[in-house]
Amino acid sequence: MRDTLLGRFLEEFFRNKIATGAAIVVLLIVLTAIIAPLVTPQDPYDLTSLVLRDARRAPGYVGTGGYTHWLGTDSQGRDLLSAIIYGLRISLQMGVIAGGIAFVIGAVVGCSAAYIGGRFESLAMRIVDLQLSFPAILLAFVIAALLGQGRYQLIMALIFAQYAYFARTAHGAASAERQKDYVEAALSIPLSPWRVVVKHILPNSLPPLIVVATVQVASAISLEATLSFLGVGLPPTEPSLGMLIANGFQYLLSGRYWISIYPGVALILFIVSLNLVGDQIRDQLNPRLRR
To answer: If residue 69 lies in a helix (H) or strand (E), which one and from where to where?
Structure first.
């Protein structure tokens, strides 16, 4: 039955050529990011391989190491193609880790509030609504500025800024599931509230959460790049896309456009492709949009 449903889902997904193309782009980027050490001519983390006289060279320049820098080099002499691929790898890690943890926290908070109800539901949802009243970038910026630069600090900032979206979605879905007969049947058996939430309510609330997850992973990647660009994200030693764009921003007026433009194009392509895939999944999982 699952195979049949999955087959129908994929068949309908691949009918949309734009979504199919976006999915191919996402898969290629993810695969390239995973095997980055095998496909890049230079390791951007290896400071011993950097040569300052190779800094800010135009695309097509043949560097000291003997290989061609097809996208040029940045202000530190790093091969820009290698830095972009590693930057996509970092952005993907940040987005998936932060989005995954925010997914779990938000789902537990939302489903628990819907199940328990009463004062706990009111308090939990008021906190969530208060967070949602502020832009995610503002919350992430404040938390990142307080915690300082670093991967773990940035992940915590992204989680704090995003879990409320999952909590609100999970609460709405779980509230509808809470009224159904199978939940009442589960309550008639002496099961713990945690077991009812995890084994009955949460699994049936997953479809809308999956849709939100695809959007929030793209949002996390965008937030990470923005925070790194503003100087409160990852440290300068890690070539995230936001940091690459920030490092080359000052050279735009001098004609060295490639240092910022190419990482920016890669970031936009990845985020737009993720959003297109997420929109198609949303359309297929939403019964109202299928009519």
So the answer is: strand 68-69
